[in-house]
């Protein structure tokens, strides 16, 4: 760590909300990325790229600080030597599993951890980032920036990326007219009501794990064809399979909360800075699941189309930021801690990891996936990410071996549900 005059940065409303999810034992605040590379990275060049990325986004080398009256990010001038570890091993899978279940210490920092796990031929790149800094879409933007820096340094060793920009939620509202803003503020959006159904999980805070299933390219292409045939999205298809699998477990329809990226309202879907910009939609298809997959899909598609067209979904997150703008920090924090809750059963589609934007020079990435934070019992979330037409399904939990067996059983049934539509 370098000695320098420390600089403080503003903590945004979503940063605090993610912190409170940890405080309230909903989930930790670490996002995870794993990529299998076809070759080895140039380690010195990669270290330089990490340092340049920290110059552009200094929050990754910062610590989170909170007093009674305020919170702030403090630049600790951490370098790649503090954030990056190289491990040579003959057991890649074991070491990947161990690393990606680690947690970021927000108060100590840094907010980024990278491990390059190396065998005799290839590198596996594992990256952890604090969810307080960004959501999955923001994490992807950081990874694209890091790979872009690495790639461009071949041409220009002094390549400097653009500095950190606006991270506020209010950048979303700028895109709406006055009339639309009024519609958002006075629209119906129940931000505090969730389905009470929950999985029977024991929980074990000393045992985090990430349970994964993969849908290979050939099967995924069939799912895409099925979606196109039914004028639905791939997200609709997987959400339908998710809800039908939950129905088999609970013997009733469970209303499911789905994460939505608010960048859809921004030009080119690009935020001004790396940040959290997501909100929740509710998939409530009623009391009947339908007799077959297609009937459930019709219900899910109709519900989600209506939810996605309702701009009032922005309301809860806008209120979150307004609270911190209007009230003293402690009062706003207390209100958020008491009122904002998380669903017991949730669904998040991280989306496509863009192969064209994630490239380290000429080194090809064979496989890649991203997962969300690790939940505490009884919270349960399915996360999906896609890279090069290969889908990764993951459920993350601090839990017992019995919990892992429960989740493994669930994921197997979910994959079977998707197989059965072919």
Question: Can you offer a commentary on this structure?
Answer:
It contains 13 helices and 15 strands. With 422 residues, the protein is α/β, with parallel strands linked by helices. The protein folds into two domains: 8-152, Chloramphenicol Acetyltransferase (2-Layer Sandwich); 189-420, Chloramphenicol Acetyltransferase, CATH 3.30.559.30. The strands form three sheets. Strands 8, 9, 10, 11, 13, 14 and 15 form a seven-stranded mixed sheet that branches. Strands 5-6-7-2-12 form a five-stranded mixed sheet. The chain has a three-stranded antiparallel sheet with strand order 1-4-3, with no helix packed on it. Strand 3 (62-66) and strand 4 (71-75) form a beta hairpin. Helix 2 (43-56) crosses helix 5 (136-152) and helix 11 (315-326) runs antiparallel to helix 12 (329-339). The chain is globular, with a radius of gyration of 21 Å. The protein starts with 7 loop residues before the first strand and ends with a helix.
């Amino acid at each position: 760590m370098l000695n320098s005059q420390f600089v403080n940065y503003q903590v945004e409303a979503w940063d605090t909300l993610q912190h409170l999810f940890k405080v309230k034992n909903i989930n930790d605040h670490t996002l995870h990325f794993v990529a299998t590379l076809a070759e080895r990275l140039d380690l010195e060049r990669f270290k330089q790229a990490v340092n340049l990325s920290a110059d552009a986004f200094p929050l990754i080398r910062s610590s989170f600080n909170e007093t009674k009256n305020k919170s702030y990010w403090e630049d600790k001038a951490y370098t790649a030597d503090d954030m990056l570890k190289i491990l040579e091993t003959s057991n890649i899978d074991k070491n990947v599993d161990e690393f990606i279940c680690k947690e970021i210490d927000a108060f100590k920092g840094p907010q980024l951890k990278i491990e390059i796990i190396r065998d005799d031929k290839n590198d596996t790149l594992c990256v952890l980032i604090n969810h307080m800094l960004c959501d999955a879409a923001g994490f992807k933007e950081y990874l694209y920036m890091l790979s872009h820096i690495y790639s461009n340094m071949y041409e220009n060793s002094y390549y400097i990326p653009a500095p950190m920009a606006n991270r506020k939620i209010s950048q979303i509202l700028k895109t709406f007219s006055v009339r639309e803003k009024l519609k958002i503020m006075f629209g119906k959006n129940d931000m505090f009501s969730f389905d009470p159904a929950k999985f029977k999980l024991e929980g074990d805070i000393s045992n985090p794990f990430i349970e994964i299933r993969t849908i290979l390219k050939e099967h995924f292409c069939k799912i895409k064809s099925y979606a196109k045939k039914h004028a639905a999205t791939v997200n609709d298809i997987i959400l339908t399979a998710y809800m039908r699998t939950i129905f088999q477990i609970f013997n009733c329809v469970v209303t499911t909360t789905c994460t939505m990226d608010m960048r859809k309202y921004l030009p080119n879907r690009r935020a001004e800075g790396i940040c959290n910009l997501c909100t929740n939609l509710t998939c409530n298809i009623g009391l009947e699941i339908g007799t077959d997959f297609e009937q459930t899909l019709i219900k899910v598609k109709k519900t989600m189309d209506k939810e996605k067209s309702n701009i009032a979904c922005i309301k809860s997150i806008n209120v979150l930021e307004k609270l911190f703008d209007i009230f003293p920090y402690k009062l706003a924090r207390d209100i958020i801690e008491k009122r904002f809750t998380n669903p017991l059963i949730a669904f998040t589609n991280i989306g496509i990891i863009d192969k064209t934007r994630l490239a380290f020079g000429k080194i090809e990435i064979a496989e890649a996936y991203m997962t969300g934070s690790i939940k505490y019992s009884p919270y349960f979330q399915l996360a999906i990410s896609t890279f090069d037409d290969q889908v990764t399904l993951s459920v993350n939990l601090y839990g017992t071996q019995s919990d892992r067996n429960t989740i493994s059983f669930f994921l197997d049934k979910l994959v079977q549900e998707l197989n059965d539509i072919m």
